[in-house]
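Example record

The entry below shows one chain as it appears in the dataset: sequence first, then structure tokens.
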Amino acid sequence: MSPGGTVSGDGTTGGRATLEEKARRRAMLVRAGIYIFATHLFAGFVLLLFALGDRK
């Protein structure tokens, strides 16, 4: 048995499943970062519109 992997019924280790889970988690964090950045960018644009609309 490899460290960090579990032995399945056919004798293979679950290390690949662990790597896939880490890849999914990293992809989710990247996607969440992009969504957060885009949301803040949109909110800043809306605030800019309000600031420009308030000028006389």
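Notes for this example: DSSP finds one helix and no strands in the chain. The CA atoms of residues 6 and 12 lie 8 Å apart.
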